[in-house]
């Protein structure tokens, strides 16, 4: 039996700050948006404990609680929030066709992509167990909690160098764990960390385990040339080996950069496909903050509204 087809004006794929903000604006504009949460309802913030850098929360807020607030606000204005994963799209037809969970077919006049990105992890058990208890993939989000303490960061690209420099401003000491005898980062970024007295670079080094039961108390690292093992006394452990945008499903239709981030027309959220807009971390590999994601979510809803008005 063929799936029942549902027609919608605005379909939002993904439910982080970008998706929910797009939903709030689209719903208030009377566009009756339908939002599918994806596999991680609330996005990356649901695995973040304290959010202290989002305006309007003077005492900070827990990530999951904040996303719950976003969802309630979107629903209050009439957004239909549904749990489900988009499994197939066809953006070559108008209206755009989207299949959810291989069974629901939706025909959407406009689609807002807010599928976010996922941090890449080292893949060790202790990293998963201590995630949010001293292990973090965002120094800008969580560095503040380690003010005046010793921390470690893994990575060798521009982001890792940037985050190491950021941490050095607020922490006592930063160990930078680099797997090879060189970095991928640009020369200027390398110079910055090498010249910073608070940053100690551990070359040819890999993490064997993050130490601690309830919270991070250290890290065991091994030099992959000399085989020497040492324990670093740190209370924070940051992983900066990159992010993977959750955009694979759109590759056939949407223009992306070599890492898979969606390309939008500068100053807008428009993609190369008419009526398809992208916001949040799926298209932003530079800032990657909740507040910037929310900002682009607002832009996407306004862009969709203008697009629909131009078609009427």
UniProtKB/TrEMBL annotation:
Its cofactor is FAD. It is an enzyme of class 1 (oxidoreductase). Residues 9-297 form the FAD/NAD(P)-binding domain. It catalyses: [thioredoxin]-dithiol + NADP(+) = [thioredoxin]-disulfide + NADPH + H(+). GO terms for biological process: removal of superoxide radicals. SUPFAM superfamilies: FAD/NAD(P)-binding domain (SSF51905). Pfam families: Pyr_redox_2. Signal peptide: none annotated. GO terms for molecular function: thioredoxin-disulfide reductase (NADPH) activity. Its EC number is 1.8.1.9. It comes from the Bacteria. GO terms for cellular component: cytoplasm. Keywords: FAD, Flavoprotein, Oxidoreductase, Redox-active center. The keyword Disulfide bond does not apply. Belongs to the class-II pyridine nucleotide-disulfide oxidoreductase family. PANTHER family: THIOREDOXIN REDUCTASE 1-RELATED-RELATED. Homodimer. This is Thioredoxin reductase. It comes from Belliella buryatensis.
């Amino acid at each position: 039996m063929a799936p029942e087809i549902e027609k919608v004006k605005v379909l939002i794929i993904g439910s982080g700050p970008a998706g929910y903000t797009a939903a709030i604006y689209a719903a208030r504009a009377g566009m009756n948006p339908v939002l599918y949460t994806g596999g991680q309802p609330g996005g990356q913030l649901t695995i973040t404990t304290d959010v202290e850098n989002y305006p309007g929360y003077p005492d900070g807020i827990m990530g999951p609680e904040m996303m719950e607030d976003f969802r309630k606000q979107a629903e209050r204005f009439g957004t239909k929030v549904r749990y489900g994963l988009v499994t197939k799209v066809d953006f070559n037809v108008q209206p755009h066709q989207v299949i959810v969970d291989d069974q629901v077919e939706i025909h959407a006049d406009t689609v807002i992509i807010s599928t976010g990105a996922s941090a890449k992890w080292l893949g060790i058990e202790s990293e998963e167990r201590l995630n949010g208890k001293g292990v973090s993939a965002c120094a800008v989000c969580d560095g503040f909690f380690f003010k005046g303490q010793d921390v470690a960061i893994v990575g060798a690209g521009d982001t890792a160098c940037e985050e190491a420099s950021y941490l050095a401003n607020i922490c006592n000491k930063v160990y930078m764990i680099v797997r090879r005898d060189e970095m991928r980062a640009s020369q200027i970024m390398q110079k910055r960390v090498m010249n910073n007295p608070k940053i100690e670079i551990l070359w040819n080094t890999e993490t064997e385990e993050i130490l601690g039961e309830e919270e991070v108390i250290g890290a065991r690292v091994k030099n992959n040339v000399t085989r020497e093992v040492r324990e670093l006394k740190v209370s924070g452990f940051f992983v900066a080996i990159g992010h993977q945008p959750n955009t694979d499903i759109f590759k056939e239709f949407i223009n992306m950069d070599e890492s898979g981030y969606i390309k939008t027309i500068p100053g807008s959220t428009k993609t190369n496909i008419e009526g398809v807009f992208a916001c949040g971390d799926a298209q932003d590999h530079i800032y990657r903050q909740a507040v910037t994601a929310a900002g682009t979510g607002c832009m996407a809803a306004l862009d969709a509204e203008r697009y629909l008005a131009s078609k009427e």
